[in-house]
Amino acid sequence: MIESIPSLRRIIRLALEEDLGSGDITTDALIDPWISGNASLFVREEIVLAGLPLFKRVLQTMDSQIEYEEYFNEGDRVSAGKEICLLKGSLSSILKGERTALNFLQRMCGIATLTSRYVETVKPFGARILDTRKTAPGLRWLDKYAVRIGGGSNHRFGLFDGILIKDNHIAAVGSITRAVELARRKAPHTLRIEVEVEDLAGADEAFKAGADAILLDNMALQQMHKVVQSLKGRLIIEASGGITLESVLDVAKTGVDVISVGALTHSARTADLSLEVIPEAANSS
Amino acid sequence: MIESIPSLRRIIRLALEEDLGSGDITTDALIDPWISGNASLFVREEIVLAGLPLFKRVLQTMDSQIEYEEYFNEGDRVSAGKEICLLKGSLSSILKGERTALNFLQRMCGIATLTSRYVETVKPFGARILDTRKTAPGLRWLDKYAVRIGGGSNHRFGLFDGILIKDNHIAAVGSITRAVELARRKAPHTLRIEVEVEDLAGADEAFKAGADAILLDNMALQQMHKVVQSLKGRLIIEASGGITLESVLDVAKTGVDVISVGALTHSARTADLSLEVIPEAANSS
Amino acid sequence: MIESIPSLRRIIRLALEEDLGSGDITTDALIDPWISGNASLFVREEIVLAGLPLFKRVLQTMDSQIEYEEYFNEGDRVSAGKEICLLKGSLSSILKGERTALNFLQRMCGIATLTSRYVETVKPFGARILDTRKTAPGLRWLDKYAVRIGGGSNHRFGLFDGILIKDNHIAAVGSITRAVELARRKAPHTLRIEVEVEDLAGADEAFKAGADAILLDNMALQQMHKVVQSLKGRLIIEASGGITLESVLDVAKTGVDVISVGALTHSARTADLSLEVIPEAANSS
Amino acid sequence: MIESIPSLRRIIRLALEEDLGSGDITTDALIDPWISGNASLFVREEIVLAGLPLFKRVLQTMDSQIEYEEYFNEGDRVSAGKEICLLKGSLSSILKGERTALNFLQRMCGIATLTSRYVETVKPFGARILDTRKTAPGLRWLDKYAVRIGGGSNHRFGLFDGILIKDNHIAAVGSITRAVELARRKAPHTLRIEVEVEDLAGADEAFKAGADAILLDNMALQQMHKVVQSLKGRLIIEASGGITLESVLDVAKTGVDVISVGALTHSARTADLSLEVIPEAANSS
Amino acid sequence: MIESIPSLRRIIRLALEEDLGSGDITTDALIDPWISGNASLFVREEIVLAGLPLFKRVLQTMDSQIEYEEYFNEGDRVSAGKEICLLKGSLSSILKGERTALNFLQRMCGIATLTSRYVETVKPFGARILDTRKTAPGLRWLDKYAVRIGGGSNHRFGLFDGILIKDNHIAAVGSITRAVELARRKAPHTLRIEVEVEDLAGADEAFKAGADAILLDNMALQQMHKVVQSLKGRLIIEASGGITLESVLDVAKTGVDVISVGALTHSARTADLSLEVIPEAANSS
Amino acid sequence: MIESIPSLRRIIRLALEEDLGSGDITTDALIDPWISGNASLFVREEIVLAGLPLFKRVLQTMDSQIEYEEYFNEGDRVSAGKEICLLKGSLSSILKGERTALNFLQRMCGIATLTSRYVETVKPFGARILDTRKTAPGLRWLDKYAVRIGGGSNHRFGLFDGILIKDNHIAAVGSITRAVELARRKAPHTLRIEVEVEDLAGADEAFKAGADAILLDNMALQQMHKVVQSLKGRLIIEASGGITLESVLDVAKTGVDVISVGALTHSARTADLSLEVIPEAANSS
Hints:
Six copies of one chain form a homohexamer. With 285 residues, chain A is α/β, with parallel strands linked by helices. The first copy, chain A, has two domains: 2-115 and 269-284, Alpha-Beta Complex (Aldehyde Oxidoreductase, domain 3); 119-266, TIM Barrel, CATH 3.20.20.70. The first copy, chain A, has twelve helices and twelve strands. The first copy, chain A, has helices at residues 8-20, 25-30, 52-62, 91-122, 140-149, 167-173, 176-186, 200-209, 221-231, 248-253, 263-266, 280-284; strands at 36-43, 47-48, 67-70, 77-78, 83-90, 128-130, 163-165, 193-197, 213-217, 236-240, 258-260, 273-279. In chain A, the strands form three sheets. The first copy, chain A, has a six-stranded parallel beta sheet with strand order 6-11-10-9-8-7. In chain A, helix 1 crosses helix 4 (91-122), helix 3 (52-62) runs antiparallel to helix 4 (91-122) and helix 7 (176-186) packs parallel to helix 8. Chain A is elongated, with a radius of gyration of 23 Å. Chains in contact: A-B, A-C, A-D, A-F, B-C, B-E, B-F, C-D, C-E, D-E, D-F, E-F. The interface between A and B is large, with 72 and 71 residues.
């Protein structure tokens, strides 16, 4: 469903324009546009597949005549060496769109695959893994989609669809209690109110003020544990701040409800995918 | 000079719109727009600074009244804990633009810092480190700018400003010789012609056909060495394909002229930067 | 703060382009651009002022040199005949931007003024007045801003920042309970879950399933009252559906928490404002 | 033909983006995209139908596979309870596009319906009913199309395609005679020249200066009558200024040629239309 | 006033983006952005100056700090060798914006200069020289502005702001009379109605049907003369079709009111202007 | 292949919007959209055909149902009076898109035809004819495509894809040698380095500094000849500056490799093409 979001049109155009500019000089000089070919999309390492519909939409923007045979679905775990999809169409079009389409897909698979590793690590403890707003500029909605495909959940998409009262906000209005009260008065009733807290006292104040969730920012594990003991089940407890694949298990063990991890989107390695293009002639031999 | 490229306007707007949407609900509910504050931008790890002019341009799009005191220049190596820049202006504006501006800056510093590590590694052997087209969609020009700041060089920006004849092109027209001839006839005289080759025979054919550069794709070190011995100084020799910080030294030792590294832009970890916001009141105490 | 939302740029440009097109033929034929003048913005009926910052931004897009003396603030109740603001600048610019700027302002004042009448009507009963998504295409964020200025609250801005499970959704998944469960599993934890219900049984099921809010759609007053008696304080209760200035008091008396009114934005009469332009010469006499 | 105007693309995208943003959270959480359904578009009150092609274009931008059975044409008077059109396609797509498509259609039907009431009122007197430039920002061309469908005529679309010399213009150049002369010298010969006048003397001067039309702004009925007696048939006479359904008949009786009514577009109530979605399952039972 | 038309923003951006793309490689490699310089804009042949405000706006989009000393005004006749304007600012910015700004200016001066030659040729006979819609795509408003500056007048800007009934329209509805009647019924009263006719009979029919103007398309001079004798002063008579600087005098002598000339915009030679850049150092010596 | 360049979308939309604006008043008033017709595209003078795919794309943006029978291919020389293509479809659509589509096509054919005359003139001497950056704003890529179709070659597309060191650059850094060295150090290895020189000494210095090409700017024929004698075959030699159809032969005789001609794109006369529309009825008789 990601491919039908209206505003994605803009990032797809930007990406195609920055790669194609005034045209593909090499391909236009060497290959006639009516020569057709096949191309096999395959993986060189185990991944969680994310972004295939977008990969196709990028190529379709170039050439609506290309045909696809898909062997896997979004969210499938695909092992190294497997073919994901076969493309048939104008060799020239495939060569022109290849890199841009792959750049989207490799990033999204990279994020989904990394997310799935976090999710599996914490599974026994029931915590949900969340993304943050630390995404590549312009790619927020794709990055967050990939997190969902990898089994993670989304935190708010931007500043507009979630209330998160941070220390700066609290400092500006004077107290957690006052901040929650102001937010509740002015915000849509469809949104929960979350407050960033630094210790048990802050957590308690937030709860009493009527917060729906608290974010424990860079809190020590012991502190976290205390907050969970005191407030679990009465509001949503989120852990955040520099959490890695190494440390996430201990965080989950404290019993927090959700764990947000910036690295999912700001530092995922892109997945190793390749498009092997097979000119018709070579194909038939 | 990066900040004056006209088309960057589009990615900056996209990034601001995806984060701000209909507005920052939390800040609008809690903080009056005329309350001013300071904010200190500092690093938590050693980095090569890249993207500060863009960081400022993003914030300026939000609020042209914010003032900046800068303590470092683009390309400076900044050690952990240092303050890069001090911002003064509307607290509300700073809070609204913070994450988007940081998302740009952290990515660019990450790329520049990683690039500089490659560059230093190969420095004794005189090889230049190049980027590829494996960039985040929409961020091509920023990613490549960061590579330059980190001491690397740019490969072609897209399909439009460089001729790179790949195996698919060669297969489609029959031979390297024929491909180079066609490209030379149709391409602008301002562009060099580079050919991807797989072995010494291909390298020789490309040279004889008049290619200006060859790209040795995933070639074994020994093979690479032979090509260098045979052709060094007669055309530009580029090594490419899965090169890492671990392997780049050995590649450089073969004597190739340039080494292109996809990881610079597709898998750099973002740099650890932070914006510490100091409300006026706290400030004056 | 409305005027700094980045995406408003698009609707302002659209509005200016559709009115100005290739230029103001009449003014360009008759009035030299360096002739300056004053213009007085005043109201012909009592209004709640909303949109003045946007009115100025529209004119500033035309001509950044125009100066403003403002006599009222956003949200002020202004009585008939009062002057809101005085403009000084190029007569030509003022004449060219006048209609477009007024079209924004009159619509926004109209919505704020109508909203304030609803809000005052229900004030003794503590219910909040909410808008809906029935806004003029492209003007969603301005329409909803005007509702806030008029004392109302915003419902969700779009399909992306609030969960509202309607009868069609329930029919598709089989039951309210199942629908709430699915939504909770997949939606960001920052969002509340609201369910549209038709009777007390549905309201009870929604509550037991863990819904945070229910929407009573076109429910009879008696029914509404029963739901309130049963669930008040345990979740948020919203009344909706064809509510008018005549009927809103009775709805509020049932004790519902919030009342959403489509007419606020889809059928508000525009406010009667005028810009009286005074050429310099006439002015000095 | 309205749906093929190239610039409408922008307002349609704006409207879809503001409602859909990062996606329809509720529908995406609950309904698989391959589940199909029917939806019946029907009216709850008598209307003049306007905007159906645009309603379809909005939905097609979401999903080009939806099919339509139409039972009425643009401009038809449709009585309360009638079904206008039946939609078949992806239930998810229909739910996502429903509100945006309806927001366009309901506004346009509202304007067409109100226009038709004015047109019928004055029919015996041969006056044409015109719109003004008091339209919702960004919706000028749709608002004016709806007026035509309702039987009204269009005044100029913007400042670029009609010459209307107002009192401010006259004040700036000194006299009506001078203003008409300047306009005639500089304006395209394809445009008529209209002058706003306040009394019979002004009307006479405009006529003698060669104006093609005069606009009687907020003139008393008696005055209007005198102008008509003096100038009818020698130039086009337009009445304007606060004309309502109550007063329009008396204005028409004076014998003016055209009557422009701002309320047609700035204050029309939206028409009461609904889309009843029928999930396949419910449908087949 | 041309420079303030809102939609010009789009063509200026397009032009800057197509020339600058990812940046000016040469200048960025060689010249630091803080080095300032002067540049003298001068003409190598006699021209009518048109487009200087746009020339400045293009450069300002690059760099708002450049300063200008202007020695001539729009519409001035400037003789060969004269300096039009002196620029002072960043040498790098001037070099980057130079070609794009000149491409606009040279085209506009070319059109204005050619127009003025037509205008002077026919001056003794009182005919006005008009442009057509045969303009460079995207440059319609600039081309037509240049015609005005050159002393010509504008025909309609597009299909939206003038009624011109052509032979195809007449063929489709059956007769000139019927065509004029339909147009009058449906078109805004602010527009004149012009009909393309081929002979005197057609001209007479158009006049009797109430046309406000006729266009004599590719008519022989003698025929033209007859139409003028018969209808001069009763409607506007326009001559059109392949008129050149050589033939325009004879056409004017027939007594037609306006003469439209496609060549003004579709085939004007660009004016010979140059920007001589003087680096600061060279300057001071 | 020109028609698939992603960024062309913007100039096509701009052109259609500026001509169609709020709609074609004349055609909408007179011709129902379901009336079909034929239209014959033919030439009135001998041309080289360029731009037919774009002509079709413009019309397709209006109406995707129009069908085409093409009788010539891009690059064909078509003699006066020949029919290029037959269109079948909605008469209304064809009339609306006709002028915009022709404006593109006539410009492109004009450029291709003029280019072919230069190319043929110099053919015996083996020099290539090149365009410059003196193109119409927004039409760079179309202008340069037409040059290729006419048998010419492209110089760099913009400032981003070619290095051309001009006298201003040299003045700023001190010497040709220093300039070449700086450019080589900073520019992508995929680009050649070209230097503008004024005399033989400059040419020699450029060669020794390692330049790949030199541009002889406005050099006298004798001087040019000397440079060729000295450097032919050692780097690419380009002649430029005010070269006309009259002077180009002598320039070619000097033996330069490439000759760039600004007039190809800045002053080509548009080709004389026409679209003769045949309403169905007339057609069937």
